[in-house]
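Next comes a concrete protein, fold included:
___
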Amino acid sequence: MGQDFKWVSIDKAESKGCGCKYGETVYDPHEDVMLRLLVPPSPMEVRTQDERSLGRDGLEDPGSSPGDWAGSRILFLGDYSETMPPDSICDPDLDVLAEMPQGNSESDRDSEDEENDESGEKEFVYLVYRRSRRVQRIYIHWRAIHEDSLWILRNLNKKLYIRSNGVPTFNESSPMRYGNKRFGVAPHLGQVLLARCAWSSDGSCSMGYEGELNLTEGDWAGDRFDIRAFEEVAEELHQEGWEDVTRTLARQIYDIYRSDFGDSIGEFLEEPDYDSEDEDQR
């Protein structure tokens, strides 16, 4: 059947999705995960499930809101894995997950798993994948995202960030273009996170990509992240010496897409240089 993956927040003991193949989700915007990492400059209007059923945006999971996962340890975990990313877990994590009720996932441990049960890291993988509380989709009015804002995805462990306007959008039918700030499109910040945060000790991922990235041992897996409006944190980025790695990661995302789409997506176009009047938008 192949290996399935799902998004996990270690700190929140929560997961998103019921498990899917890496190759099936690599072109998804992952907008709900982006919303969970996004810290809005002002409160967002969140709709209820009843309002959603009437054809308007709503909230399916009453316990969730934008920014719930901001600052927490994130990874796209494969169910074949027997390990977690280095230095990503500590003893209290295992205690929290062990206390969660069983049967909180799409399948329970089978008899073979019971016979070969091990403590430690392998057991933690089982707990975090199978017992994490499965959260549902967040629904908001998208105008609340402030689409004219420049958003950045930040790796809080490594002090690296990626600009939303520096990841070009493209597909088989439309040319590559820069400057997109909208969520809900691909490739975008969701592809950056996916390419660097997947983790499994089993390398199967249903992808033909053979580039420099190890798609199943992401070097950001288990790190802490948030998404912020650039203008809200620009001074902090400068004072603390954060590094903008947008251009490097944009090329890596293009290479992943090209491994599937081939020449149909055209040649990679470097991000245009910004003149002095646009410098505050970088």
